[in-house]
Design a protein that fits this description.
This protein is of the alpha+beta class. The protein has 16 helices and 19 strands. The protein has a 5-stranded mixed beta sheet with strand order 5-6-1-7-8, with helices on both faces. The chain has a 5-stranded antiparallel beta sheet with strand order 15-19-18-17-16, with no helix packed on it.
């Protein structure tokens, strides 16, 4: 079996390969780690599992699946960070938009993150010859701070096999060149299952060309149906039609202000008319509004910025124009613009309608989204970070056992069981812990003074970063208040960490 050798009239396809995208995001976020071995971990914790390592870490025998603390023992220069799912999705979305600016037909590969298939046909009038277009596509990667390859070939998987072993932009002259170059690709670079790769290596098959020369039927009989399907895909025997990602043009409305103004009432009146037109366009497309971006182009004035942007987001995607206008009013009232506004641009982020929005009459007497609407109003008035809630997290210090994160919704309260009638003690943590003076007897001084001190309860750890040791106590004051205190053994100081209710 050989790689495809179709004639020169074969339809072209381009492969964009951004290998190890999470690792690249870590390197982009931490340029100070440029010379260190890198890893991606599940979370920011010494016992977090390592998900991915770069070549330098692999050379020092750091492996995916290790705990980060173990990786540090193997390589003391190892640096690692988690890549939250929303960060990865935002990077993929930004790259997709950048690629769609070079061709409207872009298909992200669902099985291989960081791989995109592009249709280069019909773009010569815009970009010139194929090699010029390929350079434009590669420029989309460099502007995102990413490293990868662009290969314009004739078949999907063979062009990807070439892209995985190179960098930059390449245009293949013929299917024969594609077959020859892809055939030299080592199987170790092509994400082949390790068991299959080792079995093939025992047969002396280490490159793609050797694998494809094996009879497909024999591959299926000896190695199973998954190996047979992989053989067919890499030989381009299974050609799926391109399914490009939807190309969504931004829904935007511009409104001029003559003369320019910074009066909030005039701005709101201008926004109201533009919003009415924008919501009409959404209704015409059977869509709702999930978020609205307001761009204020300002009158030139010294070194002041020329534009200012604000974003409002309703509790749920909506067609309620008055509700959105109220959020805009709250946001505009809280903004002090440095110069009069010449133009306002409203850009909508559309969303499909859900079932509740399509219902004409609702049978509920109470609105279950009222809390979300209240949160949306607070965020519009005071900023997106104004409403937060605590989320449990892994950490050995009490102040690291939770983190504050922005929230857009309120969870329904959980019903309390019979055992919950006798509520336990609640510690109201002070952030940061408040330092106390130390008396001549070595005990902490409080006002009123302590009458009881129970403990200690030792808490020690942090050897992987900055070791700390604390002795915790419960202390009762003369007025009956119950405090949670600790003595920092390194600093030799007392702190009150919480008030116990």
């Amino acid at each position: 079996m050989s790689l495809p050798t179709a004639d020169l009239g074969h339809h072209r396809v381009a492969c964009v390969d951004v290998p190890a995208l999470p690792l690249q995001l870590v390197a982009r976020a931490h340029p100070e780690w440029a010379d260190a071995p890198l890893a991606v971990v599940e979370e920011d914790h010494p016992q977090a599992r390592i998900l991915m390592v770069d070549a330098r870490a692999a050379e020092q025998r750091v492996r995916a699946g290790m705990r980060y603390a173990t990786g540090l023992q193997v390589s003391r220069h190892l640096r690692a960070a988690p890549v939250p799912r929303q960060t990865l999705e935002a990077a993929e979305r930004a790259l997709l938009v950048a690629l769609q600016a070079r061709t409207p037909r872009v298909e992200p590969d669902s099985a291989m993150p960081g791989v995109y298939w592009l249709d280069p046909s019909g773009l010569r009038g815009l970009f010139g010859p194929l090699h010029e277009w390929a350079l434009h596509v590669h420029g989309a990667l460099t502007t995102q701070g990413l490293v990868g390859a662009v290969v314009v070939g004739f078949a999907r998987l063979p062009s990807w096999a070439i892209a995985r072993g190179t960098r930059g932009a390449h245009v293949l002259a013929s299917p024969a060149e594609e077959a020859e170059r892809a055939g030299r690709a080592p199987l170790s670079r092509l994400d082949v299952d390790p068991e299959l790769r080792d079995a093939l290596h025992a047969l002396g098959v280490t490159r793609l060309g050797g694998f494809l020369r094996l009879p497909r039927g024999e591959v299926g009989l000896r190695f199973g149906p998954a190996a047979r399907a992989l053989h067919a895909r890499l030989a381009d025997a299974m050609r799926d039609p391109m399914q490009p990602a939807p190309f969504e043009e931004p829904l935007a409305i511009e409104a001029q202000l003559e003369p320019p103004t910074d009066d909030a009432h005039r701005l709101l009146f201008c926004v109201k008319g533009a919003l009415h037109a924008l919501m009409g366009e959404l209704r015409g497309r059977a869509l709702a509004l999930s978020a609205l971006t307001l761009r204020f182009d300002l009158e030139p004035r010294g070194e002041s910025p020329r534009a200012h942007e604000e974003r409002v987001e309703p509790a749920t995607a909506t067609r309620d124009e008055l509700a959105v206008l109220e959020l805009v009013r709250l946001r505009v009232a809280s903004v002090a613009l440095p110069a009069p506004v010449e133009q306002v641009t409203l850009t909508a982020e559309p969303a499909p309608l859900d079932g509740a929005q399509l219902t004409l009459f609702g049978g509920r007497r109470r609105d279950p989204t009222e809390a979300q609407r209240g949160i949306a109003r607070l965020r519009a008035a005071f900023g997106d970070e104004a409403v937060r809630r605590a989320r449990l997290a892994n950490g050995w210090l009490p102040e690291n056992r939770f983190r504050w994160e922005p929230t857009r919704e309120v969870d329904a309260p959980r019903p309390r069981g019979d055992a919950a009638d006798d509520a336990g003690l609640v510690r109201r943590l002070l952030s940061p812990p408040r330092a106390l003076d130390t008396g001549s007897d070595g005990r902490p001084r409080t006002r009123p003074p302590l009458t009881e001190l129970t403990g200690p309860y030792r808490l020690q750890g942090g050897w992987w970063a900055r070791e700390a040791a604390r002795d915790y106590f419960f202390g009762e004051r003369e007025d009956g208040a119950l405090l949670w205190l600790f003595r920092d053994r390194a600093a030799r100081r007392w702190f009150v960490h919480a008030i116990v209710d």
